[in-house]
Fold:
Amino acid sequence: MFLRQKMKESTETYLDKVKIIKKEINSADAIVIGAGAGLSTSAGAKYDGDRFEKYFSDFRERYGFEDMYSGGFYPFESDEIYWAYWSRYININRYEDVDNGTYKNLYELVKDKNYFVITTNVDHMFQKAGFDKSRLFYTQGDYGLFQCSVPCCQKTFDNEDTVKKMVEQQKDMKIPSELVPICPNCGAKMTMNLRADDKFVEDEGWHKAKDRYVKFLDDNLDKKIVFLEFGVGLNTPGIIKYPFWRMVKNRENAKYISISLDSTYIPEKIADRSMCINDDIGKVLTDIKK
Structure:
């Protein structure tokens, strides 16, 4: 097991680090991007504050929660209210383009490189910024997909048309009953394809993306590879953070770079091949791109 310890203060300045990161990206044979919620937050997809108030002030007044994330767990009294809330949630976080340039700047830095992305984000912002779908592995689902709540099958269903209708036709925080999504296979209620418990559906597309990710790692085993981590916290470190640490430790030509507004941590054994920046991700990407 790895021991986590806070990165020791470096004598390098912020600008020194930015130059080093840019050099590592440009000289890498392969780049693995690991992205958590902090990347989307930096890009403008905030779940509280003014953005929450703009879209959910009526829900806040009636139910008392103060951010979108908390509302996602609220036990609404009917399916019609539940889907009125979730359709707004999905629409603004999946189908509207909120990127302030952060994702686009990241894409510009790696678009001509040999890269792959693994992310716990479910908002589709990588694809909207131009990233190749075949180089993306969304491990935790997609706001744009429904699945059976049972589930009766390992299938997912595109939800854009239904969500748009829910948003357009809802009144008094309710959607029409006929729009409540039902599984076409068994007639059970549908739910979001988001990993929350053991009912999460890993469909054919999910498994193909996983296989492509594993193959990318195998194909670049002995190359000069950089693991770029953006906004990954300690809620689910076993998906991106800990595997990145292990792979860097076991690969002589590997480097680990972590950029996050919150404190970043690395194991002592890879400290000599690692770099951390605690700052706004969008700002750092803008400076790297200059």
